[in-house]
Amino acid sequence: MDKERKLIIAGNWKMNKTVAESLDLANGLVRELKDVTEVDIAVCPPFTALSAVSEAILDSNIRLGAQNMSEHGYGAHTGETAAGMLKEFSTRYVILGHSERRQYQRESDELVAAKAKAAHETGLKPIVCVGEQLEDRESDRTEEVVGSQIRGSLAGLTAGQMEGTVVAYEPVWAIGTGKTATSAQAQEVHAFIRNLLGDIFDEDTAKRVRIQYGGSVKPDNARELMSQPDVDGALVGGASLDVRNFSEIILNSI
User: Fold this and answer.
1) Is 129 left (phi over 0), alpha (psi -120 to 50) or beta?
2) What is the spatial distance between Cα 111 and Cα 113, in angstroms, rounded to a whole number?
3) pLDDT tens track for 198-242
4) Catalytic position from the list 98, 100, 107, 132
5) How confident is the model at residue 4 (pLDDT cuts 50, 70, 90)?
6) Fewer CB within 10 A of the terminal residue: the chain, N end or C end?
7) What domain count does the chain have?
8) Which domain holds residue 121?
9) Active-site residue 121, yes or no?
10) 38 annotated active-site
11) Residue 18 and residue 21: Cα distance in Å, rounded?
């Protein structure tokens, strides 16, 4: 698939997989995806498995991501993980502002922005998530909600930092529900996000930013979604927990 931006497909394993199960999954993906060069691939296991998965994918074409991090450096922040700690495992990406954290941990746009800045300062590439609830879409507030999240969650980043940031559009109503935005719906919001990034930063920066789609991505809908001009990859949840499903999503996207 000929795209001006290289696709990036990341698997968010969420709170799943023991260390042993994570190794099985990572080793399977290394085996199945070893010849893929057209797509940037990342896996985001739980924190407990970062070390083991890092070693398993060390010499492969798969990069490591984390699911969250603190906005702080080191210090008295019980239960938190600093960006520098993630770097010890050769972590390349970190998911920030996922809808589950926004909803259940009450994370604000301001907090996500602080985390994104801290990630860049440590050399991590943030995957910043945005997306509307079902009631927002049904009341035609998608652009209002997503636009507010984009402005707030990326506040304070330089144009250079923005280029090194991945945006993940995840309509909340499509996460883990089996519902998927149509390719046209996804493209519409992705184009809106890119235009907004052009207003906030500049047009050249906006053209370089990769915008993933997330929300019940599966092998049978991956090709159509990835074929949209402003869809530059996927942030995959449940389907990333299975070697065959995640591999087929990637292979079907090429």
Assistant:
1) beta
2) 5
3) 999 999 999 999 999 998 899 999 999 999 999 999 999 999 999
4) 98
5) confident
6) N
7) 1
8) 7-253
9) no
10) no
11) 5
